[in-house]
Amino acid sequence: MADGMCADAAIHDTDGHNPHAHILLTVRPLDEQGKWQYKTEKEYLCMKNGEERGFTAAEFRTAQADGWEKQYPYKVGRKKVYMTPSAAETQGLVRADKHPKSTRYGRQNPISERWNSEEQLVAWRAAWADVSNRYLERAGREERIDHRSNAARGIDEIPTIHEGVAAQALERKGIISDRCEINRQIKADNAMLRELKAEIKKLAALVARTVPAIAEGLEKLRSRVLIYCYQLSHICSGKSHIQKSLAVWKPELERYTGLVQQIKAKSKERKTLVAEKKELPIYHVKRHKALAVRIAELKAQAADFDPVELYKARQVIRPAQEKAAEQQLEDAMHEKPSLIMLLSAKQETSHLLGADAEERQARQLIMHRNQEQYRNSLSKRKRNDPER
């Protein structure tokens, strides 16, 4: 109010279920005499010694005494060129019209400019939150208002949208509102994000444990993703919307993939060092000891991680986990899950978790080991029976 802003407030439904207020604000300030100030003021682009600068009408009266001149359009052949009257006079040019050169939108009132700034908006929102929280505390309520956005608060959940009284009225009549449906979708996405974060936190703690424990953690995570993929598919009935909805927690899935890749890298490095140790001559004592220490460290970190062993352990656990997920879906939706949508959810889950690539790698390792065992078996037979 001190800046000259005028507010008109109307409070509605104080005795009902939706108390609210409508507040209308002026977009330009009042001066001390109660008269409207300008929103924008004409700003003339003037020249002096080759320099161009903007002046309002009041400023130009002072600047003119210092040698500044307005620029007008003059006819130069078939073109119109802006220049000062003194420069045009030396060339004998004729003025095209009487309107001087000016900025496109003029100069905005500094008070109005501040009112429309992002900094002022944040300040007003913070003040509203402080007042609201004082009254909530006075009323003995635990709820608190935070004026900051989810991004500013470090929260990566999707914010819900404003539904409005019309949308809520439709829902009360049993009609599905698009805005309410979007909010239900957002809440489902956020619930999935929280679940995934919790599962990934548990998975990270399992890295140093046994293969069965890691396999169980991975399969539980897969079941969670499978359930939510099915639920999102059921709500939205569209694969493209699933991809859009799941984009917010894609970084968490990448963390999951990173954990698996980290374990694989540790195991691979350990095997490489073991092979290098075997090939080292006996006189490389220092290097030999350093390798032994590093192998021991990796052994502790990777916990003798074997991709094939983990793959087999997960395949044993998976049917029971999938059956439990299907039962959970049936309990939540009060009907048996659609086989087609369930298959689509499994495919989407495999795609999101990169399971296809892991499965191919495990199968290739199994095939390679089987071939190696066969070659060793043939070699052993030849040694035992030289005539063959």
Secondary-structure element string: EEEEEHEEEHEHHHHHHHHHHH
Fraction of residues in helix: 55-70%
Strand content: 5-15%
Annotation field: number of helices: 13
Rg, Cα atoms, Å: 37 Å
Approximate shape: elongated
In terms of structural class, how would the helical and strand content be classed? mainly alpha
Tell me the major beta sheet.
3 strands, antiparallel
Low-pLDDT runs? 238-242, 280-304
Give the averaged pLDDT, no decimals.
Answer: 78
Strand segment count: 9
The CA-CA distance between the termini, in Å, is: 105 Å
As laid out across the biggest beta sheet, the strand order is 5-4-6
Keywords for this structure?
about 400 residues; about 60% helix; single chain; two-stranded antiparallel ribbon; mainly alpha
Please specify the SSE layout and strand pairing:
Elements: E1 7-12, E2 20-25, E3 40-41, E4 44-48, E5 51-55, H1 57-65, E6 69-70, E7 72-76, E8 79-83, H2 85-91, E9 107-108, H3 110-115, H4 118-138, H5 164-172, H6 178-206, H7 211-236, H8 239-246, H9 250-279, H10 285-302, H11 307-333, H12 339-353, H13 355-384
Antiparallel strand pairs: 1-2, 3-9, 4-5, 4-6, 7-8
Helix pairs in contact: 6-7, 6-9, 7-8, 7-11, 7-12, 9-10
